[in-house]
Backbone:
């Protein structure tokens, strides 16, 4: 599983290096071509980042972004941390966005 987390982080870092501070939900991160025999061949595709003004995905946003702030590198780290926690424990860290 560690290789998957590393590959997801690398993919999100690509966006950050281009000045795009996008956040995702687990459903928007697609793992392609993974096999236990060749985990290094895995590809990650990110789709449809969270819209901070929309309702979907609010459980994965920082409090600052929920309050109307602009996403930045720290909010991306927070976002991936929530996704990683959910992958490890099998349930969401936050149960409600309120």
Residues:
């Amino acid at each position: 599983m560690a290789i998957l987390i590393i590959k997801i982080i690398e993919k999100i870092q690509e966006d950050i290096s281009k000045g795009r501070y996008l956040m995702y939900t687990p459903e928007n991160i697609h793992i392609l071509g993974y096999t236990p025999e060749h985990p290094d061949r895995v590809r990650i595709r990110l789709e449809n980042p969270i819209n901070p003004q929309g309702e979907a995905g609010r459980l994965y946003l920082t409090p600052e972004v929920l309050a109307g702030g602009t996403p930045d590198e720290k909010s991306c780290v927070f976002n991936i941390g929530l996704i990683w926690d959910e992958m490890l424990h099998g349930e969401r860290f936050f149960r409600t966005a309120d």
Remarks:
- The CA atoms of residues 33 and 42 lie 5 Å apart.
- The chain has a mean pLDDT of 86.
- The first helix runs from residue 2 to 17.
